[in-house]
Design a protein that fits this description.
Layout (H helix, E strand, L loop, with lengths): L3 E6 L2 E2 L15 E10 L2 E9 L4 H4 L7 E2 L10 E2 L4 H6 L1 E5 L5 E6 L4 E2 L12 E9 L2 E9 L2
Parallel strand pairs: 5-11
Antiparallel strand pairs: 1-2, 1-3, 3-4, 6-9, 7-8, 7-10, 10-11
């Protein structure tokens, strides 16, 4: 039985007994879990998680057209592909003048063709930026009605 436990994450020690934490995406992350029974009895386990790179960001599927008419087909701009990576993503959508009209993160990336104020956007081409850590992908999306 351990008297105390802690994690070393990328060289930084967590608080004793801390069992839950959220880390920003940044590629490879090294974890070491320590269990201590006394100063003379310690044990650890190591794992490295990550190595998600731009190539994996590029495997996410970005729809090129949405038709937000309520028929259940192509009504939303959503990320598809690597669900773990999509959970770490941030997406911004801009109109043709460069004004930000939508912003979503993690599981809230689902654009229905409306602005922040709930107004439907007119048909046309809009531009998105998808970001995971310091990696970015840009593209366009056409709204048809």
């Amino acid at each position: 039985n351990a008297d105390s436990t802690y994690w070393i994450i990328d060289g930084q020690r967590t608080r004793e007994g801390e069992t839950s934490f959220t880390l920003p995406y940044r590629g490879n992350t090294s974890f070491t879990y320590w269990a201590v029974n006394s100063e003379t009895c310690k044990d650890s386990a190591n794992i490295t998680i990550g190595d998600t790179s731009l190539s994996e960001l590029l495997t996410l599927e970005f729809p090129s057209v949405i038709t937000p008419n309520g028929d259940g087909i192509n009504d939303y701009f959503e990320l598809k592909g690597n669900s773990d990576l999509a959970y770490c993503a941030e997406v911004q959508i801009f109109n043709r003048w460069g004004n930000l009209i939508f912003e979503g993160t993690a599981n809230e990336i689902r654009w229905d063709g409306k602005t922040f104020s709930g107004e439907e956007v007119p048909p046309g081409t809009y531009y998105f930026t998808a970001t995971v850590g310091n990696q970015q992908k840009r593209g366009s999306i056409t709204v048809l009605k």
